[in-house]
Structure formats: structure tokens, C-alpha cells
Amino acid sequence: FLLPLFVEKMKITSQPGMGKFCFFHGNLSVPENENAVIFIVQELAAKMDHKFVIAGKNPTSAVRKVCRRDNVKLIANPADSQLDQLLKDAQINIIPIFNNTGIKVKLVHSLFKGRFVLTTSSIMGGGGLDELCTLARTADDFRNAVINLMNKEFPDTEILKRKNFLETYFDPEANAQKL
Fold first, then answer.
1. Is the pLDDT of residue 4 over 60?
2. Which among 1, 54, 97, 118 has the fewest CB atoms less than 10 Å away?
């Protein structure tokens, strides 16, 4: 029996409607996240007109350099409140992690606080989270998903679906009792 990731008790704060940009967040000094930013900028932002926001802790010089585009905004070391607002305002939270590293806290936060989540199956960690995300494998898959999701309302039904699943699945008290 595998328990889900233990995170602080959270409530769904996702908003219906449409957001303004594609978003990635994380510790930008970690090679995995640096590679994700480079992928997003070179494979998505450079080939699309949509606005992209990258936010996170300690961006490397490579991250700073690649983010120098008109449609990319880099926010270094955002406060928690600013990060929460960015998650809330984004249309798509993009998490392009290609190596099998398991579930990420940023995935959980994106599902609880944001609208659409576009990611790869390698960070799902099982448990049904894939049904709450749009999955992509290639750069073309990601671009097609961005085009589709940027023009789509985030519905109340999706918020209810997340609430019913996530607030139970990631309930730390209930999971501690199971343990």
C-alpha cells in the first residue's frame, strides 16, 4: 500500500474562467528545473505568441539568459503570496519533467491552486492524478496542448472534480491514520 505525498492540509482555490498566461515555478537553481525552463522557452515561447511567466528561487545565469524574450517574464525569488497569486492567475501551469522522478510538490500546488495543468506522465506518482492533468510527451504535444488550453474556459465542474478527489487523497490527518 502506497500513501500519497504528505503536504500541508489544503483546500481547492482554483478559479473558473480564463487565465492570462502559461506558468512554470520551482527552484530555478536545480538542474531539472533549469532544463524545464529552457524547454519551455525554446520549444514553446519561442514558437508561440502566448505570454509565459517563469518564477522561482535563485534563477541561474542560463535561466536568466534564456528568459530574455518579449513574451517571457522571469520573476526571481517571489514571495509566497506572489507565487500563490501567479498560480491563481495563470491559465496553464506547465511542468515539463521528462525523467521519472515521481510526484512533485509543484504539481500538487498547481492542482489545488491553479487552472489547467500540462505535464508529463513521469511525475504522476500514480493514484489517479493523471485524470486531473493534460499529459504531453513531445514538444509538439506541449505546443498543441497550449494552443487548445489557452482558448478554453476552466469549468466549475473541474474544480468540483479536484475538490472531491484532492482534498481527500492529500488529507494529511486521514493519511496519518492510514499509516
1. no
2. 1
Q: Which residue, among 43, 93, 83, has the nearest Cα to 66 in the 3D structure?
A: 43
Separation of alpha carbons 26 and 29, rounded Å? 9
Query: Per mean pLDDT, which range of 13-22, 56-65, 105-114, 150-159 is the poorest?
Result: 105-114
Q: Report the predicted TM-score, pTM, of the whole model to 2 decimal places.
A: 0.89
Cell numbers representing residue 144 in the block:
498543441
- Residue 115's contacts (CB-CB under 8 Å, 6 or more residues apart) are 14, 15, 18, 19, 90, 91, 92, 93, 154
Q: What does the alpha-carbon distance between residue 116 and residue 134 come to, in Å, rounded to a whole number?
A: 7
Cβ atoms of 130 and 121 within 8 Å: the answer is yes
